[in-house]
Amino acid sequence: MSRTEPGAAGPVTAPPRPHPRPVAASEAVSEAEARRTRRAQNRIVVCAGGGEVCDGWVLGVVGAAMPLARTDLSLGTLSAGLIGAASLIGIFLGGLCFGPLADRIGRRRMYLVDLGIFLVGSLLQLVVDSGAELFAVRLLMGIAVGADYAIAGALVAEFAPTHRRGRLLASLIAYWYAGYVLATVLGAALTAWSDDPGLWRWILASSALPSLAVLIARTGTPESPRWLAGRGRRAEADAVCRRWLGTRLDDLDETMGAPAGGARTGFATLFSPAYRRRTLFTSVFWLCQVTPFFAISTFAPQVFASLGAADDGVGETALNCFLLVGCLCGTYLMDRTGRRPLLIVPFLVTALALLVLGLWPHGPQWMVVGCFALFGLFHAGSSTLQAVYPSEVFPTAVRATGIGLAAATSRIGAAAGTFLVPMGLQAWGAGAVMLCGAALSLAGAAVSAAWAPETSGLELAAASTPDEGRAHAAM
């Protein structure tokens, strides 16, 4: 077979060149592009997870700082309970206000503002002089935490590929537990190292360190291409897709129109017939998970002492370690077991553990430790779904609003539990408190069995399509 070589005088005969070389080169380019895209997605997740570290930190330091602050500021039981619940109340307000705002003005801008608020609030704790001032600052920080819950989950979901979305979203909760455990360990170490009455200020203000690092790291984070396209800014969205996702906007799996159910954004859409059940499900299951957790963990020394366990910090540290291990297990199992089993089964196991503690509150120490270990492992494993389900089941136009509402609703129970536990332990004892936690876990299992959709393996557009829409499309 003859052909003309470039620059040759006439036809020459040459053997056909083997095809593998250009294929290998093409594959090398493709693999390099895939690695670049993966690194970009990982950066989005790490920056979002850094905010979760800060969120866990601000809640984790309370247990060590509050006994010292209570003495230094002469706080009563009511004041201590309010300050302990202040961040949770703030999360309620932040989720309700900043979730809709992130859907209106974008993820990126609010993504930086909330960390700035968090940093300022952390430093203000060094100069407060009264319980009222401390409550106000902790409330402000909680508002920033609530905003970050809504924004971070939405941003990760909108950048993550289908096959990694579950694990990447679940890892946000792992980051949260890492921050929570680091804060509790740091607080315990500082209180053991010094008896300075003002040490609680530095324990609380320590959250300024991770918040500053994360604020710097988040600089340069792009806007969500799905949000941009939904706002008609398709050229910008396409540029973000090409740079950060290695694809074109037209290749995304989601149609950027208004969601089913009416309004383009807002709470009216969440409570429309198309999304009402999903709104109730995400709010209720999250509430049933966090209420017993915060009630127990915030006042862990008192709870362990009431149950007859040694009050030397070992039990609390062990519980936190089980929580972190359980969260890592939940992240690993996320795309292997499916969402529904990972939610329903742990609810039943945690209900059993709390039921045993409630019926036998002064049992042997091995039983108390064993039940808390079981509670910690299974609670943390299923809590990874707090970042997954709300981020998956709502469309782009109301995703941050839906996440914010679910986070806000969950904190009603968490704040109430945190506020009531000291009084409940004093009035009724640990057994009654554990039984209340068991009842909430059973309620969560029932709601999840009835309403939890299975979104594993679905494209984000399909996962956020309401059940009525799926049935109609199938016909």
From TrEMBL:
Residues 44-456 form the Major facilitator superfamily (MFS) profile domain. It is found in: Cell membrane. SUPFAM superfamilies: MFS general substrate transporter. Gene3D superfamilies: MFS general substrate transporter like domains. The chain crosses the membrane at residues 44-66, 78-98, 110-128, 134-156, 168-193, 199-217, 284-305, 341-360, 366-389, 401-421, 427-452. InterPro entries: MFS_dom, MFS_sugar_transport-like, MFS_Sugar_Transporters, MFS_trans_sf, Sugar_transporter_CS. Keywords: Membrane, Transmembrane, Transmembrane helix. Belongs to the major facilitator superfamily. Sugar transporter (TC 2.A.1.1) family. This is MFS transporter.
